[in-house]
Design goal:
It is a single chain. The strands form 3 sheets. A 4-stranded mixed β-sheet has the order 1-2-4-3, with helices on one face. A 4-stranded mixed β-sheet has the order 5-6-10-7, covered by helices on one side. It has one domain: Ribosomal Protein S5, domain 2 (2-Layer Sandwich), CATH 3.30.230.40. Helix content is 34%, strand content 31%. The protein is of the alpha+beta class.
Length: 195
């Protein structure tokens, strides 16, 4: 493949200021959100998806981490949509199970242009570092809606919130890697378009 599938986005509101450069075909990974655990999750996502990602986020963390995490999902989802362009040649679907110690996470997605999130996880702790575990669903929803993904993601079982969330991010990454892989030339739809 000769053309790199990339997107660059900047989004500034009264709550967050986000700059992202995403490449679906690899590259350097540099993540700074101000939330250590979230940086760890996004770095794992980029690494396991095979993406290049340069992401700088300044958010109103003096309030809490909600705006920073949700808005990052909005920008990442939008970048995925733009980088995929018309989705020509893409596999479209991806599914992955990822174990991490005592837990097992699952993600299955369709990069179809019809956003939907089915999310299922019961985290035993309310926080992982400075990351509110309830924000995992908000992040996944923001990515799915703005990328146009039908995303089913769950933690089948687990006892440690860090492990559970990390396995979910990695399952999403592995599913995305499959979905954006180039397998041909045509759009994989009987309609001839994915939107």
């Amino acid at each position: 493949m000769t053309n790199m599938r990339t997107a660059e986005l900047n989004r500034k509101t009264k709550e967050t200021d986000i700059s992202l450069r995403l490449c679906l075909d690899g590259g350097e990974i540099n993540i700074k959100t101000g939330i250590g655990f979230f940086d760890h999750m996004l770095t794992a996502l980029a690494k396991h998806a095979g993406f290049g990602m340069d992401l700088i986020v300044k958010g109103d963390l003096e309030v809490d981490n909600h705006h920073t995490i949700e808005d990052t999902g909005i920008v990442l989802g939008s970048a995925l949509m733009r980088a995929a362009c018309d989705k020509a040649g893409m596999a479209r679907y991806g599914t992955a199970f990822v174990p991490m110690d005592e837990c097992l996470a699952f993600a299955s997605l369709d990069f179809c242009g019809r956003p939907y999130l089915a999310f299922n996880a019961n985290f035993p702790e309310h926080r992982a570092g400075e990351f509110d575990t309830c924000m995992t669903a908000e992040f996944m929803r923001a990515v799915a809606v703005n990328a146009g993904l039908t995303l089913h993601i769950k933690c089948e079982y687990g006892a440690n919130s860090h492990h559970m969330i990390e396995a979910m991010f990695k399952a999403l990454a592995r599913a995305l890697k499959q979905a954006v892989a180039i397998e041909g030339d045509d759009v994989l739809s009987t309609k001839g378009t994915l939107d």
